[in-house]
Amino acid sequence: MSDQIQFIVEKLNQEPFRKNYNLITFDSLESTQLLQLLNDVLGEIDPKHAVDIREELPEQTAKRMLSLLGILKYKPPGSISDLSAFRQGLVTGSKPVIHPVLHWLLQRTNELKKRAYLARFLVKLEVPAEFLQDDTVADINKQYEELMEAFKNLHKECEQLKTSGLSTAEIRRDISAMEEEKDQLIKRVERLKKRVETVQNHQRMLEIARQLRLEKEREESLAQQKQEQKNQLFHAEQRLQRAQLQLKEMHHAVVDSKPESLMKKLEEEINFNSYLVSEKMPRELESKKNSAYFLQKVVAEPAMSQSDLNVLEIKINEVNAQMNQLIEKRMMKYEPIDSKFSMYRQQASIISRKKEAKAEELQAAKEEMASTERQMLQKTNQAHELEGSDVLKGDEFKHYVNKLRSKNTFYKKKRLEIAEITAEYGILQRTEELLKQRHEAIQQQLQAIEDKKGISGYSCTQEELERVSAVKSEMDEMKGRTLDNMSEMVKKLNAMVAEKKASLAPVIKELRQLRQNCQELTQECDEKKIQYDSCAAGLESNRSTLEQEVKGLLEECVQEESNYRYVNCVKRNLEIQLQRAKEEMKAYVSPDPQERRKAIREQYTRMILEQENLGKKLREKQKAVRESHGPNMKQIKMWQDFEQLMECKRECFLKQQNQTSIGQVIQEGGKDRLVL
């Protein structure tokens, strides 16, 4: 509780409340101040509730607060189980009620603001059914619901845009940066145009450059088409391999297996699928429908308080007790008849449960296997896209590892060279710094000498003239080199175009051959598929006829087996009864008294006599108890009266003893006064 109050005080001292409370001042707030504080927090969440509670009745305040808390989905803590008690505490401003509400509100203020904002537009107005009979009211209500759905969609889109990370400021910055880059590019293009216009045959060179760019784009598109063709060829080869593998597996299954094993597999699969379709799936569907129906029923009902839930729990317990009593009565009533079949019923229930568990395990295993196959195929495709080839295996993988090791040694060697170059670079950098320092010192000395001789700035002017002449010579040399470079570039471009055409010719030829192979493989695959479909159709027709025959034979076998078991059970019961009758007759006719005692008739006769004697004794005892009941009750009453009388005497004796002791004390006090 102390942590809760400390959290409330910290939140109230922050923005936007700024109450400047401490634990003592907050704990000493009166009920009215607590209610006003709670109202201020609710007003921060929903501005409609920012009112002064002194200007409205306590019932109105409680009703308004309860309605907002209901919209915000606040649930009272476990100690306040009754809603009326919570409402009474809210009206009177009770601390055990207000403090948890404040703690809950201040914990999630932003979330509750959003919920209160949405409640203004999404809390549906309930229109009575008799008003909806009017067409105008029904149309307006329909428009109201459509607008509510549109608001939901717009709010979701707005939240997605807020959380997507895009903002108008960032977009504006990106646009301004792109415009600046565009201006820079335009300026660079203009400068390059001015430079190129001074060169002879610049139009022809530009045309050749444009053709080179087009040829490069065409080369890229051809390379992309080649890669796509390779991917398609790879996927076609994969499909062909899978089809060949399936065909091979089917050939092996047909060659290695017998018709009996095939029929057995088909029967197992058909039994499993029929069990799923006829038993498991309908049962699951029915349970899902029942649960959905009950959930819809619960949603349609109005909100229930804790007292309503307690009443329902009590009713459920009573109904469960009645059901248990009825089940016990039924078991007691039908137990002698069903005693013979109880064992079989238990075994059947155990087998059905095991069957359901195994079916679920099998279905889960099939789903896991399918997902594993999909993942394997996906990983294979990803490896092919990343590496451009299949996954390495065996000797190829060893060769790849050896290649990696050689590259690793080469990398270590180069890294050592880089370290040496870095060290040398550091030494050279330090040497450069020292030389710069010396140059600056010499320049200062030279400047001092020039000032002393009266010719200051001579060295700078000489350096400037040398720099300008060097720049002019560099520009002249650059112009000559530019012309030479452009002529060489044209020659290189022509040579590269011819070389690319020559290099692409065998690739195009190879691509045509690959396309022809792909078409042949596709035709072969289609032919194999037609053969497979015809073979599968013939096997399917044979399987259906054999299934019908097997089904009839199985039903006949089951019927005969049940008849055989029934006859065996009847025969065994008759034999047991006949044996018991023979033993009873033998014991009853036997001259030996010990043997006759073992007979069931003698045992029941003896038990009847014992029960009659016991009943006679109990009746005599009952008679004696009835005769002595009246005098015994009278004696008990006399003893009770005697006990009351003795208790009264004891109280009188204690009172008299107290009075005598008080009188002696008074007499002694009077004697003392007389002596004084």
TrEMBL record:
<dbReference type="GO" id="GO:0042073">
    <property type="term" value="P:intraciliary transport"/>
</dbReference>
<keyword id="KW-0206">Cytoskeleton</keyword>
<dbReference type="GO" id="GO:0007283">
    <property type="term" value="P:spermatogenesis"/>
</dbReference>
<keyword id="KW-0969">Cilium</keyword>
<dbReference type="GO" id="GO:0030154">
    <property type="term" value="P:cell differentiation"/>
</dbReference>
<comment type="similarity">
    <text>Belongs to the IFT81 family.</text>
</comment>
<dbReference type="InterPro" id="IPR041146">
    <property type="entry name" value="IFT81_CH"/>
</dbReference>
<feature type="coiled-coil region">
    <location>
        <begin position="137"/>
        <end position="246"/>
    </location>
</feature>
<keyword id="KW-0970">Cilium biogenesis/degradation</keyword>
<dbReference type="GO" id="GO:0030992">
    <property type="term" value="C:intraciliary transport particle B"/>
</dbReference>
<keyword id="KW-0966">Cell projection</keyword>
<comment type="function">
    <text>Component of the intraflagellar transport (IFT) complex B: together with IFT74, forms a tubulin-binding module that specifically mediates transport of tubulin within the cilium. Binds tubulin via its CH (calponin-homology)-like region. Required for ciliogenesis. Required for proper regulation of SHH signaling. Plays an important role during spermatogenesis by modulating the assembly and elongation of the sperm flagella.</text>
</comment>
<dbReference type="GO" id="GO:0060271">
    <property type="term" value="P:cilium assembly"/>
</dbReference>
<keyword id="KW-0597">Phosphoprotein</keyword>
<keyword id="KW-0221">Differentiation</keyword>
<dbReference type="GO" id="GO:0036064">
    <property type="term" value="C:ciliary basal body"/>
</dbReference>
<keyword id="KW-0175">Coiled coil</keyword>
<keyword id="KW-0744">Spermatogenesis</keyword>
<dbReference type="InterPro" id="IPR029600">
    <property type="entry name" value="IFT81"/>
</dbReference>
<dbReference type="InterPro" id="IPR043016">
    <property type="entry name" value="IFT81_N_sf"/>
</dbReference>
<dbReference type="GO" id="GO:0015631">
    <property type="term" value="F:tubulin binding"/>
</dbReference>
<keyword id="KW-0963">Cytoplasm</keyword>
<dbReference type="Pfam" id="PF18383">
    <property type="entry name" value="IFT81_CH"/>
</dbReference>
<feature type="domain" description="IFT81 calponin homology">
    <location>
        <begin position="3"/>
        <end position="126"/>
    </location>
</feature>
<protein>
    <recommendedName>
        <fullName>Intraflagellar transport protein 81 homolog</fullName>
    </recommendedName>
</protein>
<feature type="coiled-coil region">
    <location>
        <begin position="309"/>
        <end position="382"/>
    </location>
</feature>
<feature type="coiled-coil region">
    <location>
        <begin position="483"/>
        <end position="563"/>
    </location>
</feature>
<keyword id="KW-0007">Acetylation</keyword>
